[in-house]
Specification:
By secondary structure, this protein is α/β, with parallel strands linked by helices. It has one domain (3-230): 3-Layer(aba) Sandwich (Rossmann fold), CATH 3.40.50. The chain contains eight helices and ten strands. The protein has helices at 10-32, 46-53, 80-87, 108-119, 149-153, 178-182, 194-205, 215-218, and strands at 3-7, 35-39, 62-66, 68-70, 97-99, 128-131, 161-164, 173-176, 187-192, 225-230. Strands 1-10-9-6-2-3-5 form a seven-stranded parallel β-sheet, with helices on both faces. Strands 4-8-7 form a three-stranded antiparallel β-sheet. Helix 2 links the parallel strand 2 and strand 3 (62-66). Helix 1 packs across helix 2.
Length: 231
């Protein structure tokens, strides 16, 4: 089950979360000689990304990838990769390795196999996975009632990623699957705003994964989940 922590401000949240992330990555480097970080897009993590980029760490030993990606050109403003390159892969973190979730295929369904090969180059388990949550209860690009949702949630699936067509958002996506996300040492769910707290408690109170896929993250017991929330 998820451990929920309330922070008095987003600055306090970002500072503490950055400390936790750096500590987990350092532990990975100390034990394996390398570490991995899976991040999400959107506006919520921007300040966190900038803070992380300024932290002293052997970033050249860190591989960063995304939990999901919109199937747009990596220079498009809707691209999570663009957001990460402009806000996280800067300053000290500019030397980190980055694995893209986008290739030249016409659709994420066609491109998934190639992306899967790239993801297999990252040692598992991931050290840190940072997830957000939408008002509809999605996380990564695991969207409610999407056609490919149940296969992407299948813990017996050997797939690391799948294409997804959301019913509640524009653009086809590529998302890491639930087994890929849970194959990590630590998951952080990063939430800001009163509405997100209400959505989280709604998700926590129910068990229908098709209705609110984030439940697959917060109800599982395989991987520690710490929820960092501020108003």
């Amino acid at each position: 089950m998820a451990n929920f922590t309330n922070f008095p401000s987003t600055d306090d949240l970002n500072r503490r979360l950055a400390q936790r992330i750096i500590a987990e990555l350092q532990q990975g480097i100390n034990s394996k000689g390398k570490a991995s970080l899976v991040v999400s897009g959107g506006k919520t993590p921007l300040a966190l990304f900038k803070l992380l980029s300024q932290q002293s760490l052997s970033w050249e030993k860190v591989t960063i990838t995304l939990a999901d990606e919109r199937w747009v050109d990596c220079h498009d403003d809707a691209s999570n990769e663009k957001l990460v390159r402009e806000n996280l892969l800067q300053d000290h973190a500019a030397v980190a390795n980055f694995v893209s979730l986008k290739n030249a295929s016409a659709t994420p369904f066609e491109g998934a196999q190639g992306i899967e090969k790239s993801l297999k180059t990252i040692a598992k388990p991931f050290d840190v996975v940072i997830l957000g949550m939408g008002d509809d209860g999605h996380t990564a690009s695991l969207f409610p009632k999407a056609e490919n949702l149940l296969p992407a949630l299948d813990m017996k699936s050997k797939h690391l990623c799948m294409g997804m067509t959301p019913l509640t958002a524009p653009l086809d996506r590529l998302t890491l699957t639930l087994p890929a996300l849970l194959n990590s040492r630590q998951i952080f769910l990063h939430l800001v705003g009163e509405n997100k707290r209400a959505v989280f408690h709604q998700a926590q109170a129910g068990d229908d994964l098709n209705e609110m896929p984030v439940r697959a993250i917060i109800h599982q017991t395989q991987t520690p989940v710490d929820v960092f929330w501020s108003a």
